[in-house]
Amino acid sequence: MAIDRPVTAPERGDAQERESGVGRARKVPFAIDFYRSAVGKKYVMAVSGIILMGYVFAHMVGNLKLYLGAEQMNHYAEFLRTLLEPIFPYSGALWLMRLVLLAAVILHIHASYSLTMMNRRARPVRYQSKRDYIAADFAARTMRWTGVIVLLFIVFHLLDLTFGPANPDFQAGKPYENTVASFQRVWVSLFYILANLALGVHLYHGAWSLFQSMGWNRRRFNAWRRYFAVGFAAIIVAGNVSFPIAVLAGVIS
Amino acid sequence: MLDAKIPDGPIEDLWDNHRFSMKLVNPNNKRKFEIIIVGTGLAGASAAATLGELGYNVKVFTFHDTPRRAHSIAAQGGINAAKNYRGDGDSVFRLFYDTVKGGDYRSREANVYRLAQVSTNIIDQCVAQGVPFAREYGGLLDTRSFGGAQVSRTFYARGQTGQQLLLGAYQQMMRQVEAGTVRLYRRSEMLEVVVVEGRAVGIVVRDLITGEITRHSGHAVVLATGGYSNAFYLSTNAKASNASAVWRAHRKGALFGNPCYTQIHPTCIPPSDDHQSKLTLMSESLRNDGRIWVPNEAGDNRSPDEIPESDRDYYLERKYPAFGNLVPRDVASRNAKMMVDQGKGVGLRNNGVYLDFGDAVGRLGAPAIKERYGNLFDMYERITGEDPYQVPMRIYPAPHYTMGGLWVDYNLMTTVPGLFAAGEANFSDHGANRLGASALMQGLADGYFVLPYTIGDYLAPLLGSKPVPTGHPEFVAAHNDVTARVDHLLGVGGTRSVDWYHRELGKILWEYCGMARNSTGLEKALSEIPALREEFHSNVRVLGENETYNQSLEKAGRVADFFELAELMCHDALHREESCGGHFREESQTEEGEALRDDENYAYVAAWEYRGVGNRPRLHREDLDFEHVKLSQRSYK
Amino acid sequence: MDLTLHVWRQPGPDAPGQFETYEATGITGEMSFLEMLDVVNERLIEEGREPIAFDHDCREGICGSCGFMIDGQAHGPQRGTAACQLHMRLYNDGDEIWIEPFRASAFPVVRDLAVNRTAFDHIVQAGGYVSQATGSAPDANLIPVPKPDADLAMDAASCIACGACVAACPNGAAQLYTAAKLAHLNLMPQGEPERYVRVERMVDTMEDYFGSCTNMGECEVACPKEISIDFIAMLNKDYRKAKFRGGTSQANTR
């Protein structure tokens, strides 16, 4: 952009190009057009975030069955595979859910990646003196890092407990035994705890932020958005972190 | 004798008849005309928006980084309009009457009547643009009362009315920028008007970032560049507000009307120390609920809460029972000065009077006061470190608005054909004193509803003529003048900063041509100002070069023009041996110390012709006839 | 009091810049921050050095000209206060102060602490107005506006376009500015007909220049007018609605 040129014909040209950008809506589906904007990407991040939050919550609640013993846990795992039979084939509904989750993860990551790039371009020269942040807390500023930690963990977690290569004692269809075996390795438990703390921090900002991105804003209820985020993150972290501790402490074996 | 070109007929129909009789430009021909507008405050932005919308090719210039920074944005209190929504007896005629009377019978009746007429259109227009005026719970517009009026006709948007009206005009102008009818030049300061064969045909502009000097040609030039209160150095105007555009026009032949009519606003925060760079105004609307007082005894330095009611002098309520704290600005200011001069001033420097909200807080409760004036109270607290909910505010008058300006006829055209002046830049409709909330009204009236018509009347006969090419010898000469002036200022290489000279000039002007003036003082000023001016031109230090963002250089050019203008102000003040409105000559007062007019000898507009730096200007007169308002001694008792 | 200033000096947009250190002596608590800089500048001129360039004008906190980073915060440490209204009584003798221009690719440095904020104008130009021809307006009291709506619109409209929100935002986003401009008009019935066209155009233009909002809220605390990020939620909702409605073509039919 030129330095303080008067708004002359070329700049008005820019304005017209922008208008033709709006006109793109007619050529591409509106969802894609919407996704091209940063506000649209944030919306997609919020929606995919809600899906993933739902999953994380259900996953944590389901895993509480660890406390009920191997039979209950393994039966629950089998139930998930036979869910909605015979409408779906064996494992069908489960895979469908996995596909939705996978899509949510991919969109969530793609949107955050391209927004990060956009934001870097928006401030190519950083502040040269020390910034003093007031409102932007640790969680908000480290979303990218906590996100990366959680992503790496998910990859390991799948290899460890879903598909098995990262778990020498892996037995198909025996999630209870697999979990106990895995958590008995102290480094796995530590990594698991660390990753869940990162997840908690990520959720602390994300579960609040989604209300803003979705435009869910009622002054009367705004304070509850923060309570919700804190509560949600705390419940997820407390539930998840309890499993490795319980295993290491011998409560679950 | 000047001809104001006031149409004939009854005053109620003047403007309507005139609009009908003026020549029109066919819609398809409008784009063949280039109009240059300097300034993007209320008058400039609204004129640019409307002229662009009509289809003219408009070029608009602002020295700010964006048009929305113009100083109209700082107006707080409100805008008058004869809507009579309150049913309290307001009418166009009453607004007209109040304005002429408030101006101490030194304004042109026809203009003021037109202003009162279009005031109602302004409110409609601004509301339609989405200006968030204050509302009552029923959803209709709220109003409040202002000094010099006994009806409630002032519309407002919290304490930010000027901001909201300016944003309205700015947005309308940006809409035309997007449409391509208005071209916007930012950080571009007009430094010369170009006159060819007696007509204004263009301007010369300096780009404040690159120093590049460019020429712009047009069929007409509109100056909407505001007032010259900054000649006083300490004023409520923004730091960059200046008179260079009007002064350059004056030097090129435009007569300057009533330069000595300056308004000293009664409710400003008193200076706190010698490094004070500007003064901050607290809206006049505060006088609705605040009570002004000083201690009875001079030198009473007790803190305000220790001074009992019996030792307080609510001097405005005592002297003017009918209007009380809502007397017009000139009266309020002069009385404050009188109190401070008697040694009754309050505060550490004994340089203010109290504006006390104690009663209002007691009567209405703090929340109601917060609702009305919250942002003003916050501002006061930030500046002074005192909480006005607890401690009375301290206020003192400060230069604020200039009723004087380029002389214009009924069509807002100066004595140079093709050169128009709008808003505070013209000598305006306010006579010798402007009523509160009337500046916004006048700026928008000129820009939205007057100029767009009258400029067409000037342009219509010019159809088919091309703008004068910028290679014309007059353009070249003006360009060279600007370059020479810039080189001169950069080349002086003296020892004192521009601000130092500005401050010294301000002291002289405030001392001798401020709230009270007398012939001895004015003579003194007329000998001191030229001496200081000469020292300035031989001893000012402007560092850096032309080709960068050089703020000292900008200031130097403006202060150089203030020097010449200050001299003119003193000449005018000296010649007008009467007191009227903002111009108070100590030689001419009633026994009670009120301003005493001399209608016999001074019921005219003084319009001055430039005759070279340091030479006595020549006086031209426009006699004022009062057919509808009876001349009388103003009384607010 | 005596202070040590570290001020960013940069001769022009493309020239390299660096911090320079100045002693500001004899500063009083009554001075505003800008008056303190005036004092420093007067001394620089005395010494034959070019004064520090910084934009400023009204010095009443309303024109939006001034603004730079003071110790890592836009407009300095006091909430709801522009740099011109910041007073030196907040500082103590011996304090060190770091002063740096607002930084964003859309706000290139003009010189020293002055930046170019023209991008804000472009956002307004894209749709920040009501298409209302002069002279054709209906009576002002024809459409009542509920007081809470008008008040909320006024909250948004109090934006002074200083750029502190962009400067403070870790992402260099202009969401708060744009949201304020939008909410001002969209909350008024007069702005309703163009609501969704406006949102779409202004947001798209904003994204040509600025970063994206990640809801950190840093803008809200930097804003000298304390404009709420609730307006950003409103922007997000309206933009989504505008897109779902099929964009500009149907926006007028609501």
Question: What's the topology here?
Answer:
The complex is a heterotrimer of chains A (253), B (637) and C (254).
Chain A: H1 9-23, H2 30-36, H3 38-63, H4 70-81, H5 92-122, H6 138-141, H7 143-162, H8 175-183, H9 186-214, H10 222-248
Chain B: H1 14-21, H2 27-30, E1 34-38, H3 42-54, E2 57-61, E3 79-80, H4 92-102, H5 109-128, E4 143-144, E5 154-155, H6 161-179, E6 182-185, E7 188-196, E8 199-207, E9 213-217, E10 220-223, H7 244-251, E11 256-257, E12 262-268, E13 291-295, E14 312-313, H8 315-319, H9 329-341, E15 353-356, H10 358-364, H11 366-384, E16 393-402, E17 405-406, E18 419-421, H12 439-459, H13 473-491, H14 498-513, H15 519-539, H16 551-575, H17 599-602, E19 604-609, E20 618-623
Parallel strand pairs in B: 1-2, 1-10, 2-6, 10-18
Antiparallel strand pairs in B: 3-5, 4-5, 7-8, 8-9, 11-17, 11-19, 12-16, 13-14, 13-15, 15-16, 19-20
Chain C: E1 3-9, E2 18-24, H1 33-46, E3 69-70, E4 73-74, E5 96-100, E6 109-111, E7 114-115, H2 118-125, H3 147-157, H4 164-168, H5 175-186, H6 195-209, H7 218-222, H8 230-244, H9 248-251
Parallel strand pairs in C: 1-5
Antiparallel strand pairs in C: 1-2, 3-4, 3-5, 6-7
Describe the model.
Chain A has 253 residues and is mostly helical. In chain A, 71% of the residues lie in helices and 0% in strands. Among the domains of chain B are: 266-400, Flavocytochrome C3, Chain A, domain 1 (Alpha-Beta Complex), CATH 3.90.700.10; 473-613, Methane Monooxygenase Hydroxylase, Chain G, domain 1, CATH 1.20.58.100. Chain B has helices at 14-21, 27-30, 42-54, 92-102, 109-128, 161-179, 244-251, 315-319, 329-341, 358-364, 366-384, 439-459, 473-491, 498-513, 519-539, 551-575, 599-602; strands spanning 34-38, 57-61, 79-80, 143-144, 154-155, 182-185, 188-196, 199-207, 213-217, 220-223, 256-257, 262-268, 291-295, 312-313, 353-356, 393-402, 405-406, 419-421, 604-609, 618-623. In chain B, the strands form five sheets. In chain B, strands 6-2-1-10-18 form a five-stranded parallel beta sheet, sandwiched between helices. The mean pLDDT of chain B is 95. Chain C is built from nine helices and seven strands; from the N terminus they run E-E-H-E-E-E-E-E-H-H-H-H-H-H-H-H. In chain C, helix 5 crosses helix 8 (230-244). Chains in contact: A-B, A-C, B-C.
